[in-house]
Amino acid sequence: MLKVTLVKSMIGRPEKHRRVLRGMGLTKLNRTVELKDTPSIRGMVKTVSHLVKVEGED
Fold it and tell me: pTM (2 decimals)?
């Protein structure tokens, strides 16, 4: 499991990044969600890595 926290605002970000964050369930600043560690989730995290903090990585 990965704990993903939104640490930077979505304001002014490209629509693609906003859709990725919404798809992960991150809609508000400092909100944390637990997600399964799958290749698709890893790709989403990589896309918005500059906006999120990830815990639980090996």
Answer: 0.89
